[in-house]
Amino acid sequence: MSTTTEQLSATTLLRFATAGSVDDGKSTLVGRLLHDSKSVLTDQLEAVAHASRNRGQETPDLALLTDGLRAEREQGITIDVAYRYFATTRRRFILADTPGHVQYTRNMVTGASTAELAVVLVDARNGVVEQTRRHAAVAALLRVPHVVLAVNKMDLVEYAEPVFAAIAEEFTAYAASLGVPEITAIPISALAGDNVVEPSANMDWYGGPTVLEHLETVPVSHDLTACHARFPVQYVIRPQTAEHPDYRGYAGQIAAGAFRVGESVTVLPSGRTSTIAGIDALGESVDIAWAPQSVTIRLADDIDVSRGDLLAPADDAPTVTRDVEATVCHVADQPLSVGQRVLLKHTTRTVKAIVQDIPSRLTLDDLSQHPAPGRLVANDIGRVVVRTAEPLALDAYADSRRTGSFLLIDPADGTTLSAGMAGASFAAVAEPAAGEGPANDEAEWDF
To answer: How many whole angstroms separate alpha carbon 297 and alpha carbon 28?
Structure first.
């Protein structure tokens, strides 16, 4: 193994997403970050330079490093989430460059759902706009622990410190009111390269880190082994061969925490208990396994365990419920309405459900709750109450991003309707009083 490979294998991994309004310069920032950190191959740079010349540009348009779709290059916008992988000697990165248009806000949900950090760009000339607030709200809802405000195009406001200070103050107050735990503001010019990788000589009044410095040094706290132990069963292995006549194993990926041989576990939703008799990983028996390893767990007792069941420590099992209260980001073109029949997918379990109530829709301008909207349309963020046909072992999203999240799916064609986060929405915003909801009319339900 080479020295460079050893260094990279020893570094931590940071997943982060970029977001911002149209033409704020997200793709240019990402391109500058890749270019100046020497993470771009020569042939990629040549292809970008060639495409730029064909568009009449004298210098390479670094935004083309991420805008890979033909429609994106023709329109000069980002449409789909673009993932990029790069590394420095200090850290490895998985970057999700998300679109800025309002109609593509749902794509940000996809890109930020696994991110530990979100970079929200603001055009220094325009300041904080509605889409900026929308992206901050999505980051807060998804419990992204670190948010960077990148005030871009400082070169177009003559690198004026008061402009940056006013935008930083407004955004920080808004994001803090949403419960975002850490906000870092950095003045940049992605086009000129100021404070992206190298410190800017044009903004000597700024003494903080560059974007790359912050990305390399921000604490990474996605240690899933410290979370409540959860193991969604994906597949039951019963070879029933002469060599393994009685083998029964439950295969899947550990969602969080760690499991040990001899530990007492509860199978949910049935509530039956047993003891872990063995753990098989990569063809070998091990005494302990932790997230996100894929393993097979064997139990001491022959009990009924199926795909979609959840194994959890007997003394730390989640509450089983059929009534789910959650915040959802609606991502489908078709609306989500009260009374609508849906499928709810949680980890490896999919159950029938009905939308019992939509208590409120979030108004991003002032964070007020619009009561009883009746339905949610594309890119809406709202509270829902869902009744499931079968019980679910669901954690609060604040406790576990893996086992506190779910999808609402159209049973007719399999379209994803909404991405849901169980429990309270924002960390520092009071929830509206929960109403009684509509009366249960079993005759109208198909379960």
So the answer is: 47
Average pLDDT over residues 28-37: 80
Residues in the chain: 447
Non-local (6+) Cβ contacts of 233 within 8 A are: 250, 251, 252, 305, 306, 307, 308, 309, 310, 311, 348
**Cα dist from 101 to 84, 444, 445, whole Å:** 20, 39, 38
Which residues make Cβ contacts (< 8 Å) with residue 151, sequence separation at least 6?
122, 124, 163, 164, 167, 168, 185, 186, 187, 188
Residue 189: both structure tokens together:
């010019």
Cα angle: 111, vertex 112, 115; to 5 degrees: 115
Give alpha helix (H) positions in 37-188.
42-54, 70-75, 105-112, 130-141, 161-177
- Indicate the angle between helix axes 130-141 and 105-112, nearest 10 degrees: 30
* Distance from C-alpha of 39 to C-alpha of 281, rounded to nearest angstrom: 34
**Confidence (pLDDT) at 339:** 96
pLDDT above 90 as % of the chain: 55
Model pTM above 0.85? no
CB 337 within 8 A of CB 419: no
Phi/psi for 104 (5° steps) reads -110, 15
